[in-house]
Amino acid sequence: MRIEATTTASPERLWETVADVHSWPEYAPTFTSVTPLDVSASGVGTRYRVKQPGLPAATYRISAWHPGHSFTWISRSPAVTTTAIHTVRSDGDGAVLELLLEWTGPFAWLADRLLTSRAEKMIRTEADALTRHSELR
């Protein structure tokens, strides 16, 4: 699933907001907590314990980190792997945030069937919260 949100903030300012994942719960209601599990605060290999309302806690590991542009984090369970890609790009006088979510694995079909509607609402809320917050920074 793919969601986009635009902002009048610069791509640099939007990236600052997107990259500061442990602060997301302060302004994004879709996150209860994002706790770093490693000494490094960002970059490939960094792990975070993520709690979201109504979902079990999950550990996400950053698998790709492109400062100023994008990052990907992945959460693995025995039956489903969740991949989320966060991309920032310029859009004239502002910026665009693109959020992609994908489930793979033996029970991805079940996650898709049970969670797509809820996940789409949560991702839309996340995108709106991140872009709004970037305008306030």
Assign an overall shape: globular
* Class by SSE composition: alpha+beta
Compressed to H and E, one letter per element, the order equals: EHEEEEEEH
User: Whole-number radius of gyration?
Assistant: 14 Å
Give the N-terminus to C-terminus distance in angstroms.
28 Å
Note poorly predicted spans. Answer: none
Outline the biggest β-sheet.
Answer: 7 strands, antiparallel
**Order of strands, widest sheet:** 1-7-6-5-4-3-2
Number of helical segments with 4 or more residues? 2
* Percentage of residues in helical conformation: 25-40%
Relative strand content:
35-45%
Mean pLDDT over the residues: 95
Number of strands: 7
Structural overview:
This protein is α+β, with helices and mostly antiparallel strands and 137 residues long. The protein is 28% helix and 39% strand. It has helices at residues 11-19, 108-136, and strands spanning 2-7, 33-36, 47-51, 58-66, 70-76, 81-91, 94-104. It has a seven-stranded antiparallel β-sheet with strand order 1-7-6-5-4-3-2. β3 (47-51) and β4 form a beta hairpin. It is globular, with a radius of gyration of 14 Å.
